[in-house]
Design a protein that fits this description.
Strands 1, 2, 3, 4, 5, 6, 7 and 8 form an 8-stranded antiparallel β-sheet that branches. The chain is globular. The protein has 183 residues and is an alpha+beta fold. Strand 6 and strand 7 form a beta hairpin. The protein has a single domain, classed as Protein Transport Mog1p, Chain A (3-Layer(aba) Sandwich). It is built from 5 helices and 8 strands, in the order αββααββαββββα.
Length: 183
């Protein structure tokens, strides 16, 4: 009988300790970086387009984004990233939107990437009252748009192959959704 009570006490202690053994995270609101992504059809009409990816270090990221890793490594070699493409419609035309989220490990690094001219947002328009600590977007000659922001240790980059007010509003909706998960 004493052995059974002892076993029950040990089992109780183990069960109460196990939740504290979960993977640590860099954000209070997300368990992993991929938890920050917009879920399938979370924004009505926008669904996953192909498989996304998650990379836990600069080497894995470079396998996904080729030479662009150099820009991120200017600020940190300790980087995680995730990517997902989405398919939906803009002005009744099928479009693809891409989301990249980089965990730069601190806000100084995230802000550095955000301000780096090699990210491809030269001439960007600031989005006042938008997502993150700062956000801006660029419209590319009627062909595409890019939007980026940073909050805390995250740098987020979104792009869409469309350049209309509707596509800009969709980019902003995705950005606000992700930003809400980072907060």
């Amino acid at each position: 009988m004493k052995k059974q009570v002892f076993n029950i006490i040990i089992l109780f202690l183990l069960v109460s300790i196990l939740p504290s053994c979960e993977k640590s995270t860099t954000s209070n609101s997300a368990k992993t970086i991929e938890d920050l992504l917009v879920k399938n059809n979370e924004i009505t009409g926008w669904t996953y387009s192909g498989a996304g990816w998650v990379a836990y270090n600069a080497t894995e990221i470079s396998q996904q984004i080729d030479g662009a890793i150099v820009v991120y490594q200017r600020y940190s070699n300790d980087i995680e990233a995730t990517f997902q493409a989405y398919s939906g419609t803009v002005n009744s035309t099928q479009c693809r939107l891409r989301v990249y989220i980089f965990d730069m490990k601190n806000s100084t690094n995230a802000k550095g990437v955000y301000n780096d001219p090699d990210i491809g947002l030269s001439g960007a328009i600031d989005w006042q009252g938008g997502a993150g600590d700062a956000a801006h977007y660029v419209r590319n000659a009627g062909l595409s748009q890019m939007l980026s922001f940073y909050r805390k240790n995250y740098f987020v980059l979104l792009d869409i192959v469309a350049d209309t007010e509707e596509s800009l509003n969709i980019l902003k909706q995705f950005a606000l959704n992700i930003d809400g998960k980072i907060k």
